[in-house]
Amino acid sequence: MSLRIVVTVKYVPDATGDRHFADDLTVDRDDVDGLLSELDEYAVEQALQIADEADDAEITVLTVGPEDAKDALRKALSMGADKAIHVEDDDLHGTDAIGTSLVLAKAIEKAGYDLVISGMASTDGTGGIVPALVAERLGVPQVTLLSEVSVEDGTVKGRRDGDAASEQLEASLPAVVSVTDQSGEARYPSFKGIMAAKKKPVQSWDLSDLDIEAEEVGLEGAYTVVDSATERPARTAGTIVKDEGEGGKQLAEFLAGQKFI
Amino acid sequence: MAEVLVYVDHVDGAVRKPTLELLTLARRIGEPVAVALGNGAADTAAALAEHGAVKVLTHDAAEYADYLVVPKVDALQAAYDAVSPAAVLVPSSAEGKEIAARLAVRIGSGIITDAVDLEAGDEGPVATQSVFAASFTTKSRVSKGTPVITVKPNSAAVEAAPAAGAVEALAVTFSDKATGTKVTGRTPRESTGRPELTEAAIVVSGGRGVNGAENFAIIEALADSLGAAVGASRAAVDAGWYPHTNQVGQTGKSVSPQLYIASGISGAIQHRAGMQTSKTIVAVNKDAEAPIFDLVDYGVVGDLFDVVPQLTEEIKARKG
Ligand SMILES: Cc1cc2nc3c(=O)[nH]c(=O)nc-3n(C[C@H](O)[C@H](O)[C@H](O)COP(=O)(O)OP(=O)(O)OC[C@H]3O[C@@H](n4cnc5c(N)ncnc54)[C@H](O)[C@@H]3O)c2cc1C
Ligand SMILES: Nc1ncnc2c1ncn2[C@@H]1O[C@H](COP(=O)(O)O)[C@@H](O)[C@H]1O
Question: Which of B237, B285, B307 to mutate to test the pocket of ligand 1 (most atoms within 8 A of CB)?
């Protein structure tokens, strides 16, 4: 039987652009250029490698996000994923991690899956919790933050490099995996891949397709409220000296003045 | 007074500093009740009591080491059910965030991750977060259920505040999901004898400009002269010059020390994301246009191979 892989990908504001908040204190996704979260490219890459090793596999990329999030799906399809699902609904605006995980879990169940692969964190929210939340909701093993992953005979194995130790993990499918940026460089879409992606199917689902009520998600349904967002004042300009042979000593003098020495 | 559950991060009974910081923050909201799990759990009690824990709930079982995350969620949930706390605080490690998140879904609560400060508010605890590579500061609250909040290291000063710290055994029944992900092997990280990167008061980092693994000795020598931790940019890590565990930035560690010294690091947004909240920032870079200089309190435009060894010598001389 074919291995059904669902890769969750997020469309995020470009980190090198001028990211900010909208008036309702949600992340502004309209006035900034967006893209497929770079950390989710690693998830797509690992899915492609796992699919290569399997006899028969199908990769579905799934995003929950606004209209423009289609760009993220296209990028993943041009890297080589087979098909895409876009969950899009006006009522989703302002959904937090708890709500996002609900939508993702329902969509993953509806799509059918053996393996879910996520990125280690989104580059905008940087929570790094959605994969664990999705695993909790689906009731399947979480095998997260892997810098190495492989699938064989219905078992997923991987290496998780933690603070105190590096751990070898193992779980039976179905399971939720997340991969780090140490898992291996993501490929660039080829010209052929980009052309092929245009013909690949992208399904659109809304909340009613997933039997989710509007009140369960969005700003209204959120489990958290942001009361304020303040731009951090620019750091006051520091002293910059050119090394004329005494740079190290000058720096020591500064550190001594600050009581670090 | 309301009780606040504090999840204890410890290594075989030695409580890690972020947990003690968490106790300081917990006391602003209520009375801290600590939850310590795994090998050495009961040995944490003295340190926790000294920093304000009124109670220490402990439990040890092989499951905590043999399976990933879920056994700890089961135990934290058992503690939650036993205490009915006003909030649950967890240190913001990768694992801590996953435990907290799964607990939040189970108890129907919201979660805030990576808080850098916490204060009591009329409508529950208010968490400060630093977002978009620390270019914005937000204040948020959990609006449904019992607030579950993870807090980054170095977010508060450790304060002694002796309390009873009575040890109580926690009764835990593991769910059938607890054994889903098996830990089949574990290689402990070798200790370098230097302070923990996320906990250190001073961090000395090197980037691509260090130009080779062997040259990191220059960075380490400076770090050792200051009793500092060593960090590295992703460029230096990807080149294989320094271990990934020392990477500072978006996909590495996020640090907030009193002093951050960057040498041969340009200051890309993803690097800044992990160090921008440092109190004092110092950089050595031969390119006067490097973006890192926008952040510094003191910068030296120069070759790190000249400046850094001179700095190290001068520090040693001054310290005598
Ligand atoms: C999704 C994603 C996540 C990322 N996560 C991280 C992360 O966690 N951490 C991170 O650091 N980066 C991260 N990056 C990479 C980041 O974008 C930069 O590429 C990286 O930080 C650059 O490292 P660097 O400053 O050491 O190298 P460079 O940008 O190449 O800068 C080297 C600097 O050294 C200076 N230099 C060279 N020789 C000398 C000398 N002899 N003396 C003094 N100065 C010298 C140069 O002038 C230059 O400014 C991430 C990128 C992406 C896309
Ligand atoms: N809106 C979304 N749509 C699809 N996947 C998502 C979404 N949000 C988060 N994810 C997935 O969850 C991972 C971790 O996200 P986070 O917990 O937000 O840091 C990401 O790398 C994605 O794989």
Answer: B285
